[in-house]
Amino acid sequence: MKDSVTNITLPTVRQSLEVVRNQIGAWRKRRRCRTRIPEVLWQAAADLCGEHSIFEVSRALRLNYNDLRNRVQRSRDRGLAIGQEPDVGFVKLDLGTPIISSECLVEMEAANGSKMRMSFRGVLRDVDPVELSRAFWRQGR
User: Fold this and answer.
1) What is the span of the domain harbouring residue 31?
2) Tens digit of each residue's pLDDT (9 = 90 or more) over 22-68
3) Mean pLDDT score of the chain, rounded to an integer?
4) How many helices (H) and strands (E) does the chain have?
5) Domain count of the fold of the chain
6) Is residue 83 part of a domain?
7) pTM of the model
8) Residue 44: alpha-carbon gap to chain centroid
9) Among 1, 46, 63, 73, which residue has the fewest nearby CB atoms (within 10 Å)?
10) Do the domain assignments include residue 89?
11) Which residues contact 80 (CB under 8 A, 6 or more apart)?
């Protein structure tokens, strides 16, 4: 697979520092003044940080240390090891902050003498006590 802008071969196996250094050197010779480094080269440099330190890679490839560190950190923040495909077999659901469990007791008595007692413990997720109360009061009419 080739990048249409730079004609750089995308890595198919983990590349050595020397190979990436040669690719970046070739790009630097062909580039126009003040153009950005192609994403393919940044990714190849970030992939090397799985085997070498960020400092070693940035120094050997003459890249900005902070820019490289930020790219590596973003890859790690996405939960991916450098060069690893995302695992779509697991989806994390954020259910918000957990609610402290509580206990509640509600007793009701209608004018016709019918009584209702509701006792709840823990977090209410499947039961709506307000709707149960409305049904009780409608029943007593």
Assistant:
1) 17-77
2) 999 999 998 888 888 888 899 889 888 888 888 999 999 999 999 99
3) 76
4) 5, 2
5) 2
6) no
7) 0.47
8) 21
9) 1
10) no
11) 86
Is there a single domain that holds both residue 31 and residue 71?
A: yes
Task: Report the distance separating Cα 36 and Cα 34, nearest Å.
Answer: 7
**pLDDT of 85:** 56
Residue 10 CA to residue 44 CA, distance in Å, equals 8
Cα atoms found within 13 Å of the Cα of residue 34, Cβ hemisphere only = 0
pLDDT band for position 4 (cuts 50, 70, 90): very low
Cα–Cα separations (whole angstroms), residue 20 to 48, 52, 70: 9, 13, 19
Whether the CB-CB separation of 4 and 38 falls below 8 Å is answered with: no
- Counted residue by residue, the chain has a size of 141
Is residue 107 domain-shared with residue 66, that is, in the same domain?
A: no
Angle between helices 17-30 and 54-61 (to 10 degrees): 40
